[in-house]
Amino acid sequence: MTDSGTTDTPNSSVDLPLPATGEETPPPLRVNRTRKGIHAKEAPSSQADLDDAALYFNRELSHLQFNIRVLEQSLDPSHPLLDRLMFLLIVSSNLDEFFEIRVAGLKHQLASFHEETGADGMTPARVLSEVSRIGHEQVERQYRILNDVLVPALEEQKIRFRRRAQWTPEQAAWVADYFEEEIAPVISPIGLDPSHPFPRLVNKSLNFIVELEGTDAFGREGGMAILPAPRSLPRLIRLPEALCETGFTDYVFLSSMIHAHAHEVFPGMEVEGCYQFRLTRNADLSVDPEEVSDLASALRGELLARRYGSGVRLEVADNCPDSLIDFLLKQFELGEEDLYRVNGPVNLTRMMAVLGDVQRPDLRYRPFTPGLPKPLRGEVNLFSAIRQGDILLHHPFQSFTPVEDLLRQAARDPDVMAIKQTLYRTGADSAIVGALVEAARGGKEVTVVIELRARFDEADNLALASRLQEAGAIVIYGVMAYKTHAKMMHIVRREKGELRHYAHLGTGNYHAKTAKLYTDYSLMTANDELCDDVHKVFQQLSGMGKPRKINTLLHAPFTLHKTLIEMIDREARLAENGKKARIVIKCNAITEPKLIRALYRASQAGVTCDLIIRGMCCLRPGIPGISDNIRVRSIIGRFLEHTRVYYFHNDGKHEVWCSSADAMERNMFHRVETCFPLLDKKVAQQVRKDIDTYLLDNCQSWELDTEGQYHLRLPGDAEPISAQETLLYAYASQA
């Protein structure tokens, strides 16, 4: 594997075993597994019904397995030290959303007596039980890695997180001043008594439960109080350089400052104990399409409600007394299975601030400059370049700037008549939105389909919708019952007295920041058939009528699912007839049962199926007679794998499709998605070559076995190959 950064961490395994598996010899650290895998069952016979629940892994538990693979990266010495910390913190962010949405959904099913089982047959109660077991094991392991591995390694690099007992007198004095000047004026303690009931606490906010002794100014006897940490203050504060040892960078947590000075918040009272906790609430938005006349207004109301949904998880400092924990669990109507005692900050995600604050390039990935394909190098008229042939960009190895430049040129080109764009996640201040605003103010016809319900980006999307409307753009919120997840841009330009069409189609969002972190494909084309289909999809989104005949694109919720199954079945027929057949699918998740059954049929027919699935996989590979021709890999590395590619050999008539859609129920049936063919042979060959590179990876590739366990592929005596590093050096310029 080519180095992408440097680290002083020794290249050896760390003695932090996974939870016991019942085996005589403990498994190696870098095996992604649980005691029972995702959902271990006896392998069915080759004659088994393809609807048999034993053929499917549970979606939620597979989701947890992905987070475990991310956590493994924090132990991988091939990653630079600060990036190892980043992987560990990403796990916390992922778990927050998992509990807010997925666990909340399961709990809602139980509470409403409306339980649903997936193809795997597991009941919500059983899934919740397994989630709790795996979650507790891995959260405990996460904090052990932080405290026993990463914090000591960072301290060796002179980056320290100072606990109260470690403060020097000078540091303690500075903290006291900071508390008096910055914290005390904005902190609001809440004593608990009949006139002060337990407060409603904001979702995922940092709070303290305080035990008090004594009598206050009104004669009230001490008891308990809740101390919410001011949300306006940073959770991690860097100490002045003058207070640190030479060469050291020291940080203190806001929670430590509040602990140290809690007695000042309750003058004259004795603080017997002060313990941090955090409540995670149900954050899924519920908008009934039959009862909503204005989606934007309805979402604004739901966004306020999200902050105070029902509780789903309680995180508490591990030194908190059981009596106080029981009190909190009762207040939030949670059980012991929902309680997570943690040895450190209750919100590790806030430690992300260190990554942007510490200027240590030797502890980060080496920077690179995204490359450009030859047609786009130098001063280029993008319309002229695209007319010469389709242009494919592979982000982040290749720059996202041409996509922004295309829109900028369109906004300023007097020959451009109209621009249409979908936006899912982009940010109100992005260059994309700025160009659309400029085009609208310049008098062009600008139509923007904004998906307001992009999870956790709803507020940003409401803001950018307002900005575009004020500029004169036509803003559409898509179709009420279907999220608009397609990534499309359509430009109409007058050339030599005729209208010429241009389009951009992508697998990822129009977001410059994520384009530097996520792998995605962007296709810029002037192909008449593709552009005409994009135009029809936009008309269908903005108008009304029966489904339009779309000739080249696949379009969810209408033709995508059906056609994918037809193409999989075609490969099966070819194999049965002795013809060459092969399937490669690369996406973020595969959970849709009918697609999985089609792949099982293809495997039974002898089709080699390679699946590169980053996250959730409900398909069970390697079952004799059913899925023994299917291999499943997950690539976890520096960049978040996000490309969606569907490849079919088709007896030498190769078909390569890129898509905004994963192989999931929601994408196939409840979203507006596009899947576009790569019609240019050179472009299609580029993607096939990229896919082959991923299949050769033996450094960051995890292979799924029949029992639901992921195993890291190791090079052994072979040449180490990291797909991401190979593509980085192939496409990008190293700084």
UniProtKB/TrEMBL annotation:
The cofactor named in the record is:
Mg(2+)
Q: Which part of the chain is the Polyphosphate kinase middle domain?
A: 170-353
**Is Magnesium one of the keywords?**
yes
| GO MF annotation: an example | polyphosphate kinase activity
- Asked if Membrane is a keyword of the record, the answer is no
InterPro entries, sorted: PP_kinase, PP_kinase_C_1, PP_kinase_middle, PP_kinase_middle_dom_sf, PPK_C_dom2, PPK_N_dom, PPK_N_dom_sf
Q: Which domain of life is it from?
A: Bacteria
- Per the database record, which ranges form the Polyphosphate kinase C-terminal domain? 381-545, 553-724
Composition-biased stretches (Polar residues) = 1-14
Q: So where does ATP get bound?
A: 94, 518, 614, 642
Cite the residue spans of the region called Disordered: 1-45
Ranges for domain Polyphosphate kinase N-terminal come to 56-161
Keywords of the record:
ATP-binding, Kinase, Magnesium, Metal-binding, Nucleotide-binding, Phosphoprotein, Transferase
Its EC number is 2.7.4.1
Q: Looking at the Swiss-Prot or TrEMBL record, what is one Pfam family this protein matches? A: PP_kinase_N
Q: What does the PTM comment of the record read?
A: An intermediate of this reaction is the autophosphorylated ppk in which a phosphate is covalently linked to a histidine residue through a N-P bond.
Which reactions appear under catalytic activity for this entry? [phosphate](n) + ATP = [phosphate](n+1) + ADP
Chain residues that bind Mg(2+): 425, 455
> What is annotated as the active site?
485 (phosphohistidine intermediate)
Membership in a protein family? Belongs to the polyphosphate kinase 1 (PPK1) family.
Q: Describe the task this protein carries out.
A: Catalyzes the reversible transfer of the terminal phosphate of ATP to form a long-chain polyphosphate (polyP).
Q: Which HAMAP family match?
A: Polyphosphate_kinase
> What protein does this entry describe?
Polyphosphate kinase
Q: Which species? A: Salinicola lusitanus
Q: Which gene encodes it?
A: ppk1
